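User: Fold this one for me? It's DUF4352 domain-containing protein.
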Amino acid sequence: MVDRLTLLIIFFSFTVIATATSQQGNFKDFIDFSIDKVEERNYIIDIAGKNGVWESNEDDKFVLIHFKIINKSNKKQIFNFDDVYLFDPNTEIQYKPNWLISLGLLTSINGVNFNLKSEKTIKKTLVFMFPKTETPQFIKSNNKIIEIGD
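Assistant: Here's what I get for DUF4352 domain-containing protein.
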């Protein structure tokens, strides 16, 4: 049964709703993803860098989404996270990722492209700032809202 929130989102935003029961989807043709884990934290640690520990501000928390990204084509694909957001359906706010964690190193997400070799899989973690009072339940990519929560 469809709840009223889902109907309102469909009616007002004209955005496709894609519920992924196994937390899977695709970012674009031939590039699929799965979400291994979603974490909420008050701090993050830059293991490989010299930046140490980052603590969230009073009203926000860090949401870490661990992605497995799969190139299903037989050609190299270039991919980035420019169109990936953490989405709050209550406010309709889209939160861009603030950082990327790769091999324990916390880096800026801006302008980072990945060369995905043919039929290869990579793992990346996106870090978002998200309101402490909300529960992360959806990501938005390519005008699709994809459920990530239980």
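One thing worth pointing out: The first strand starts at residue 16 and ends at 18.
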